[in-house]
């Protein structure tokens, strides 16, 4: 294992795909503290932060053979932590539904800082809901809503019909609306 400490993340991940526990251990030791610090800052709970980081590493191990990393392992693991933190926020919201509804009412009546925080929470919830969409639907939604592309541009870029693009957007918006309504009503 000591020989692996100096290897790149990408090589270690390639070894991990072949079920190398040593490579996994090196990556775990390399990233645990950094991820824990980020998770703690976001979640403000040591227990939740440790659980989130542990879930990330469990997910990496369990999906090691199917996972394809497009950019870098660091980018991949950071994104995995981000979505795990979003999931933690969602769990908290469901656990404390009544308290959250009260905070929404308080937020609407309070200053702009609180409104901004509420907006951030809603954005996080939307990001979680978008992540749940099927891959093509998610891609169409992001191109439309985040990149600002028109239906025609998306159709051309993805080589699908405009009707299909509209269908994906409708499906995505319906999914988001149906699941966000739980938060506000």
Give a verbal description of the structure.
The chain has helices at residues 9-17, 21-43, 46-62, 73-95, 97-109, 112-131, 135-146, 151-158, 162-184. With 185 residues, it is mainly alpha-helical. The chain has a domain at 1-88: Rna Polymerase Sigma Factor, Chain: A (Orthogonal Bundle). It is flat and about 55 Å long. 16% of the residues are buried.
Spell out the key features of this protein:
185 residues; mainly alpha; Rna Polymerase Sigma Factor, Chain: A; 80% helix; flat
Write a brief caption for the model.
The protein has helices spanning 9-17, 21-43, 46-62, 73-95, 97-109, 112-131, 135-146, 151-158, 162-184.
Name of the CATH class of the domain at 1-88: Mainly Alpha
What overall form do the CA principal axes indicate? Answer: flat
So what's the oligomer here? single chain
Largest sheet features: none
H and E order: HHHHHHHHH
Number of strands: 0
What is the name of the CATH topology of the domain at 1-88?
Answer: Rna Polymerase Sigma Factor, Chain: A
Rg over C-alpha atoms, rounded to the nearest angstrom: 20 Å
Contiguous runs where pLDDT drops below 50 for at least 5 residues: none
CATH superfamily of the domain at 1-88: RNA polymerase sigma factor, region 2, helix turn helix motif
**Percent range for helical residues?**
over 70%
Return the average pLDDT rounded to an integer.
84
Report the total helices: 9
């Amino acid at each position: 294992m000591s020989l692996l400490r100096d290897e790149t993340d990408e090589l270690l991940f390639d070894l991990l795909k072949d079920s190398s526990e040593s490579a996994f251990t090196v990556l775990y030791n390399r990233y645990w503290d950094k991820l824990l610090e980020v998770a703690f800052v976001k979640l403000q709970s040591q227990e939740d932060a440790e659980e989130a980081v542990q879930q990330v590493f469990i997910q990496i191990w369990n999906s090691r053979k199917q996972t394809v990393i497009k950019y870098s392992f660091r980018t991949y693991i950071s994104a995995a932590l981000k979505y795990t933190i979003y999931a933690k926020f969602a769990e908290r919201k469901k656990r404390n539904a009544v308290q959250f509804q009260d905070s929404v009412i308080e937020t609407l009546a309070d200053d702009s800082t609180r409104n901004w925080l509420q907006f951030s929470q809603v954005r996080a919830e939307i990001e979680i809901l978008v992540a749940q969409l099927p891959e093509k639907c998610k891609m169409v939604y992001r191109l439309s809503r985040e990149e600002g592309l028109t239906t025609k541009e998306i159709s051309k870029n993805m080589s699908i019909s405009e009707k299909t693009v509209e269908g994906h957007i409708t499906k995505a918006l319906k999914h988001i609306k149906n699941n966000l309504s739980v938060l506000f009503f």
